[in-house]
Amino acid sequence: MKVFNGIAFSMLAAAALWLAAPTASMAEPVVYQIDPAHSQVIFKVKHLGISNVTGRFDIFEGSYTFDSDNAANSKVEATISAASVNTNEADRDKHLRSDEFLNVEKHPNITFKSKSVTKDPGDSDDYTIVGDLTINGVTKEVELDAEYGGKTTDPWGNGRTAFEAETKINRKDFGLTWNKTLDAGGLVVGDEVKITLEVEGIHKKQ
User: Fold this and answer.
1) Which domain holds residue 178?
2) Spatial distance between the Cα atoms of 193 and 176, rounded to a whole number of angstroms
3) Each residue of 1-56: pLDDT tens digit?
4) Domain for residue 12, yes or no?
5) Which of 59, 154, 155, 205 measures 20 to 30 Å from 140, CA to CA?
6) What is the pTM of this model?
7) CA 167, CA 151: separation in Å to the nearest integer?
8) Which own/partner contact pairs does 82-87 have at CB distance under 8 Å and 24+ positions apart?
């Protein structure tokens, strides 16, 4: 009986240890540094109500934690240099850097910090990211629709993942209120700004 009880106890202890230990199929959250050489921060806004002006920010940095098994463990933080705005037109970019728009001398950085990441229902690679966006010293909550692009390993053995994310904001919510009314009606600059992020992250091998 003592031998039987001892065997039973050993089996129970082994089972408990197996259940407590992480299995090989469980992914660990991984931190990726955003690779600016393979990422883009793009925006689009209406001009004269008939066309779009597209621009980008050339200088940015950040990181994200991605857990493919549990999106709640994922998070994103990024900082963008407001002065790096680039619409391929020098006078317009100078105006955008002024206190009538981004006011880069007083508010040099645009920042984003996530508050939640959730995977959309179903088997898709779509995620919803909610977080605080700060522009011109004003912070507002925004929601990004993100799509996971996949995972690979580069020739140097570093793990990489990629995402595309989109959102829309009203620039006036961030104190960017400059405008002019056209003689025929309408405004020079639209209020809605469409933002697209193409992000590739690198997890350097230890």
Assistant:
1) 25-203
2) 11
3) 444 344 444 444 444 444 444 443 456 889 999 999 999 999 999 887 778 999 99
4) no
5) 59
6) 0.83
7) 23
8) 82/57, 82/107, 82/108, 82/109, 82/110, 82/135, 83/59, 83/108, 84/57, 84/58, 84/59, 84/60, 85/55, 85/56, 85/57, 86/55, 86/56, 86/57, 86/58, 87/53, 87/54, 87/55, 87/56
- Residue 151 corresponds to which tokens in the numbers above? 């995972």
The predicted structure's pLDDT at residue 15: 41
For residue 138, give the nearest of 111, 160, 165 by alpha carbon.
Answer: 111
Which DSSP letter does residue 28 get? P
Q: Which of 179, 143, 147 is nearest to 163 (CA)?
A: 147
Dihedral, CA atoms, 22, 25, 29, 30, nearest 10 degrees? 120
CB 33 within 8 A of CB 1: no
Alpha-carbon gap, residue 17 to 33, rounded angstroms: 35
CATH number for position 189: 2.40.128.110
Six token digits for residue 40: 């883009």
88: region left, alpha or beta (phi > 0 left; psi from -120 to 50 alpha): left
CB 135 within 8 A of CB 103: no
Q: Can you tell me the distance from the alpha carbon of 108 to that of 130, in angstroms, rounded to the nearest whole number?
A: 23
Count structural domains, the chain.
1
Domain assignment present for residue 20? The answer is no
pLDDT value at residue 185:
59
What pLDDT score was predicted for residue 89? 94
pLDDT < 50 stretches in the chain: 1-25
